[in-house]
Amino acid sequence: MTFLPRANDALKVNPPTSVDIALSDHGSDWLWAVTAIYIISFFICLVPSFTAPENKRVFNYILVMASLTGAITYFAQASDLGWDAVEQTNHLTRQISYARYINWTVSFPAITLSLGLLSGLSWTTIVVNLFISWFWILSYLTAAYTTTSYKWGFFAFGTFAYVILAMSTLNEGRESAELLGIKRDYMILSAWVNLLWLCYPIAFGLSDGGHVIGVTGGFVFFGILDVLMLPVMSVMFLVLSRSWDFGKLQLDFSDYRGTRHSGHSRDKGSHTAIVDDVELPDRS
After folding, report:
1. Predicted structure pTM score
2. What's the confidence (pLDDT) of residue 258?
3. DSSP line for 220-246
4. Which of 41, 151, 198, 241 could crosslink 231 through cysteines, CB 3.0-4.6 Å?
5. Which stretches are transmembrane (predicted)?
């Protein structure tokens, strides 16, 4: 006898047909919980942006976009949508969630961009790191869809890309952050991210790669990593950012935009005047 009827009927509405190894009801329950965490993370990042000065919202906006993407992709996964049936080496078909990789295509570059902006890395290095993060994810996605042992070649390319990204964020980023006087905060965030990133190749090898654990087990493993990666790191980022000098970090982008539009020079010691958005020498 049950006093409370089961509310989650996602697998009844969207049944995993034509697949041998699929998501379980309890796995769907877990994914709904992760969806809720991402939605909470979205509002945690969004609400302070309404009261924070415009020139201090850059991390709020970046993390808001990543959290919203995570929320909708986990909604799809919890609803048993956003997947394909891929054949394994034992000729059984298994659910492979492409929604998972869509989430990473936004969240990993968002984290990479946030760390790059904080550390003061050059834009060329940041762009390269963004490309490497996309390369990593797309290599894993290709490996997940490859039904032969050649998948491990794509896995190797992707993991090598992760190693490059880790070296850049832990080495170049640290050196640049030290020059700005925020080495401690940067290393807290960077070490946290890289510790979690290190677990993704392991999780992939056990789930979408090697099929050692089931579909539900893979969702649980990746769900824990994703929650620690974005929602938890977002809170850490926003809490630590309260003590940062955005002007010194050159992250107060809107100050420059406001200066250009208002026609007033931001540098009061400058011997130039701006008239109608054209900079002219001061003849006084």
Report:
1. 0.85
2. 46
3. HHHHHHHHHHTHHHHHHHHHHGGG--T
4. 41
5. 30-51, 58-78, 98-119, 126-146, 152-170, 186-206, 212-240
